[in-house]
Amino acid sequence: MAELGVADQLADGPLDTEELATRCGAHAPSLRRVLRELASVGVVRPAGADGYELTEEGSVLRSDVPGSIRSSIRMLGEESFWYAMGKLPETVREGRSAFVARYGELYEHLGRHSEVSRLFDDYMTARAETFTRNLVTRYDFTGVGTMVDVAGGKGSILATILRANPGMRGVLLDLDHVVAHAKELLAAEGLAERCETVAGNFFDSVPEGGDAYLLASILHNWGKDDAVRILRNVRQALKPGGRVLVLEVVLPDDAQPHLANDLDLRMLAIFNGGSERSREEYAELFSLADLELEGVTELGAGACLLQAKPV
Q1: Domain coordinates in residue numbering, the chain
Q2: What architecture (CATH level 2) is domain 124-310?
Q3: Which class is 6-61 in CATH?
Q4: Residue 27 among the catalytic residues
Q5: Could you give the angle at which helices 28-40 and 17-24 cross, rounded to 10 degrees?
Q6: Annotated catalytic residue within 27, 109, 181, 220
Q7: What is the per-residue pLDDT across 257-280, written as a single tens digit (0 to 9) for each?
């Protein structure tokens, strides 16, 4: 349903199966069987002799609504990500990612496949929606004249911060193939004059002179040594009195059900070394990079903003 865009086609009202199949580029008899199953789980319902309409539950699969999960579902079903989870037993047996063995490192894989890269960027934007919205209402950005978004992707988080703080300027660092997408989004948001995009690799260096450096869903991709290396580069570039802001889904301290536990298995499947971490583990990373954890802001959806300062 997500991949074919069924919910988008049903957004304006019910359609018969033949018409819906034409709009979705699908084989009508096959789609009819899928719609029957979709109706049984409540995301569409029958309308007329051979038609269907969208339910409230199914509306989250539209691409144009707040809280849409369409890009998330499409990302989970993308061939290489599906392979990663399907090969999880092999990864657990060997202690090495079967995904990496077949496709290479994730960001190299994305760099070679532009459609997968764009889908991944859309997924990350949708995934960040809840905690990005809370970020600008729950965290005080007073004193931040320049925000450097390290590996900022399409720039959706930075754009939200800049809109909420009109006096702030931004710098977005990411790889070559990602920066082009960021320029598009920032221009569309009317922020091109307030935000510079820089192509580079955070293992080499990050842009200097920021009052705050944001690392959103970055450190969990890397093992301990690499994560500390990234933080040290940020520490070196930071202005006196500056702050480091790490936005991550943080593991709970007990065995309660938590999104971070599910995400940690996906990190296990897709990366060699990447993992979700507890607050104590992030505090340890900061300490190894001559930084000190000084505050944690809950952002919802399992995410936290961890603020660190130079020691």
Answers
A1: 6-61, 124-310
A2: 3-Layer(aba) Sandwich (3.40)
A3: mainly alpha
A4: no
A5: 110
A6: 220
A7: 898 999 999 999 999 999 999 999
